[in-house]
Amino acid sequence: MAKDAKIVGRKEWVKERLALLEKEKAYQRAGDELSDARRALPRVKLDEDFVFEGVDGDVKLSDLFEGRSQLIIQHFMFGPDWEAGCPSCSFWADGYDPMIVHMNQRDVSFAVVSQGPIDKLQAYRKRMGWNFTWVSSFKNNFNISYGASASAEQIEAGKMRYNYVEVPVDSTELPVISVFERDVDGALYHTYSTYARGLDRMNAAYAYIDLTPKGRNEDDLPYGMAWVKRHDEY
Predict the structure, then answer these.
(1) What is the pTM of this model?
(2) Structural domain spans, the chain
(3) Burial grade of 55 (CB within 10 A; 0-12, 13-18, 19 or more)
(4) Which of 8, 17, 43, 67 is found 20 to 30 A from 132 (Cα to Cα)?
(5) Which CATH superfamily hosts domain 44-205?
(6) For all residues of the chain together, what is the average pLDDT?
């Protein structure tokens, strides 16, 4: 049983549940307003059509749209010298494949980008049983440009820009989601990026866990996701 949980009759429970429901509705309305504001953000036109390494050769950012006008990029933490992907990023990635077909129906394409070399990314993708598009930014500065990876200069200086502010370089790879748009003439625009806890709501497993009495139950752990392992390691 959750800590400090009261035991009440059904009538009292319904009363308290209705009070919580009003808060949930207010939260939902605030979220809708926030989404409207997010969609109304101005765009930044890209000067470069980044070229990535894909499993079949070079792939441009524009190619990742796959004929659609919107593209979501998940910056996945997998450094050039890493032998496996980040366990927490892998926790998120376990949910991608089933969602992509539905995104596609709303004019949205989805791809994953990491700094690691393509052969390592493909080997790890095979191990995890994933099918989503995954390309390497090992030979370009895409991840660095969007604050998902630290450059050699930033590592030497010990600081980088993450979530729009300067922070210490505690890790060379960090979680980010970036969104792009392509107009009818083929011009590319950056419309949005989110960092840190901004990725939290994209994890469907956490959303369900949050409904339970114990919630994430992470307070006594060394850090929030210390319990998370790759799905083949539990």
Answers:
(1) 0.94
(2) 10-39, 44-205
(3) middle
(4) 43
(5) Glutaredoxin (3.40.30.10)
(6) 96
